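# step 3/5: fold
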Amino acid sequence: MAEQKATNVHRHEGDINSTHRNQLLGQKGATIWFTGLSGSGKSTVAVALENALHKAGRLSYRLDGDNVRLGINKNLGFSAEDRTENIRRIGEIAKLFVDTGVITLSSFVSPYRADRDIVRDLHIEAGMDFIEVFVDVPLDVAESRDPKGLYKKARAGEIKNFTGIDDPYEAPNNAEVVLNSHEMSLEQEVEILLSLLTERGII
């Protein structure tokens, strides 16, 4: 966990808490954390789930890797240390959204198991739902898709520390959901996720 550097700081609680906000929205805030190789289909299924939730009148917000790195995490690169800090910050942001009652769809390669476990623990300690979704495809499938041409650049040595090529991806051991996007339709993936959200009383 990140070290607390600021001193003499104390949490200030108001009169309205997450239970009140959940009641107002008619749903329960939760983080759905999509992890997998670049090109596995994380963002694709997150966008599809976001659309399905919107049609059902449910409030969600999608956090996506490049979008976050263009803003709050623009000062971070792709070293192991920067990846860890990237995921830590995103985990804290996701918690804030969950506290407001929003279903938060987080799509990040997040290659290191320990980093994802930190985010899970942040949610558990706060009494919040955290659902890890492993979008699992073989490397050759992800590389054949290569929507941004990143694998090609990594193979050519133009990109360093690229997950799956010269940096490892540590698959989840106990993800709540495993989606094999190369063997399933997008509709099937969304239906699985909606069913789980319903079972957990999130929607």
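# step 4/5: annotate
The first strand starts at residue 30 and ends at 35.
# step 5/5: archive (pending)
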